[in-house]
Amino acid sequence: MSRRSGILEFAVLGLLRESPMHGYELRKRLNTSLGVFRAFSYGTLYPCLKTLVANGWLIEEPGSTPEDALAAPLAGRRAKIVYRLTAEGKEHFEELLSQTGPDAYEDETFAARFAFFGQTSRDVRMRVLEGRRSRLEERLEKMRASLARTRERLDDYTLELQRHGMESVEREVRWLNELIESERAGRDLKGSPSGGSAQQHNTSGSTGGLPRPGVTSGTDSPDETAT
Length: 227
Hints:
Order of helices and strands: HEHHEHEHHHH
Number of strands: 3
Oligomer: single chain
CATH class of the largest domain: Mainly Alpha
Low-confidence stretches: 191-227
CATH architecture of the largest domain: Orthogonal Bundle
Helix content: 55-70%
Distance between the termini: 23 Å
Radius of gyration: 21 Å
Largest sheet: 3 strands, antiparallel
Strand order of the largest sheet: 1-3-2
Mean pLDDT: 79
Structural class: mainly alpha
Strand content: 5-15%
Number of domains: 2
């Protein structure tokens, strides 16, 4: 499995843990509310869903509302499919959520993990945040060393671009320092005690107002009528 496929599966399982969804709603949440993924096609999403179904982590159900049941026959279309997380899928997602290895520190992986921090225990959040900070500090050190070696050979625009990249990394390190300090103090970013248990991920797909570095919104597509 590629890293990006693994991130997509993780995000799909996390969103479906909140509530069952149609494929269209899932794609919209991945592109907008969650903000981890750039716009991607149903040709990417549906193979992922089929794999999760085959693994026993999701089940497919007909559209659950009376409108779904009536609209499809009248329009000569198939009913929408709703995807629901199974007990095994929930257990698998919680296992993924507890992992704190080096993969959790990479750019896209970290963004996906951070989006579900509201469902993550404090000790896991701390390990991921500290791992991400260490990874960026290493990256920043290499960028500074590279700039020092090549500064005299760079034109002004290339030099400015490298400085911009360094400033972006420095900003994220400062942001991570603030998050780590808040976690150590036992409070969330709104300043209220969060206790030992994770905050619930709200239904809008945001993470309780937590900022997300590098988040972009995708564009919506016309409502789907099939699976």
